[in-house]
Design goal:
It contains 15 helices and 13 strands. The protein is α/β, with parallel strands linked by helices.
Length: about 475
Amino acid sequence: MRPIPAGMLDAAVEVAYLSPAAHGAPVHIGDPALLGIQDLSRPDYGGPVEMQPGDVPVFWACGITATEPLLSRKVSLAFTHSPGCLFLTDIPDSTPTSILSPPTRGVDPLITDLSPELIPLCFQISHNPLLYSLASKRAVTKIRQLESTIGQDPGQRGIRALFVQDELLRSCLALSHATSVAITTGFPTNCEDNPPDETDGPPGAIAMATMLLSLGKQVTMITDRRALDMNQAIIDEAVSLGVLKTAIPLVTFEDSGPDSALHFLCHHGDPSKPRYDHLVAIERSGRAANGNYYNMRGINIKHLVDPIDDLFLAAKDIAGITTIGIGDGGNELGMGKLKDKVKALMPSGILIACDVPADYAITAGVSNWGGYAVACGLFLLHTCPSHQRYRNRGQRLEPMTPQMIQDWTANLPSVDKEESILSVLVKYGIRSGKTGHLDMEVDGLTFHPTHSDIITRLLEVTRVSTTLK
């Protein structure tokens, strides 16, 4: 471990990355406890390293690690080094004829590709516990292109005013490290209709869920009790249509006491044992400052909404739970992070602005697009060798195979899949949020050409970047 000032992390990562046959890029940046290290002042080997204010603990794989198996095997002869005492020569390890040329055996060929676009960049993705992640410049550029694409505003709602760069990138990086994700959606904006829900939200939620499932994550969906049976039927049809990889648990949350949220989020109500490590809200009604819930027309729909906001509020005090909100108007759960902008810049913002923040707030012209972009971003990260090496803490795993890529690709959103799930919503009487039309539209925009075009553009960014080497 070496303490690195936060402002120099990118430089330290790049320098280390350029020596893949030595230490290579770091395997962990952040809280030592995430590696099982409880006390930095008591290292197993060598002396402690003093941390200064503003420093971040950065961990590399180390040759000293080999000491343990050598001692346990009791070999008769072995050459190693003492902590901090290395054997240096005047022969560069990059010299083609060097007797110390970098070994290729056991070194992932993807990591020895030192192309500038594969150099990792460093991003903080959690404050409690402190955690950073890495992704190549190429992957970062592609995800920023996704973010730009979903920022289009054909409905002229003024959503660009709420944009914050890299909220999508940091959300995708955080979710890539996830184990168990809970997703919630549902905005009963058509309060005079039955059902009152809108077509924005569920397609994006399902798109994220199926990609997370394909990457080995556990996924749970949270809904309102009034919509439980309908949403269960929608999930079942999504599975039968191949839009959702497999069935997922669908649960509800109701306020039954002061510790309801804590017990819902954590096993036995123990904050040290969270049941989920990520909460994601997409086009989910968000609680305003006065405790009510408003649609964009300023109508109070509180009577149709369960208090799922309480989970996001409780998560702020539970280490290890990251929250993400996706919205397109500022009145959605999680958009409280942007409430000052919403109040100042969005129509009726002072009344409708959600007051409940998320750690990350993704804004999009239509919230479904944000869900599609998250799915595409996760795909990009899982085909990024720099990110995968870091996520696996430097352990050499099986290389990506055509079968793995095929499965991940099959779980990306597509025009056909999104059109089919929208038709399912319409069949159940779910209407467009802006117009109330029971038709193939979302937020007043018809599926063809608007939504199909956005999906096509997202896939063009995603698939062009994918290579198998």
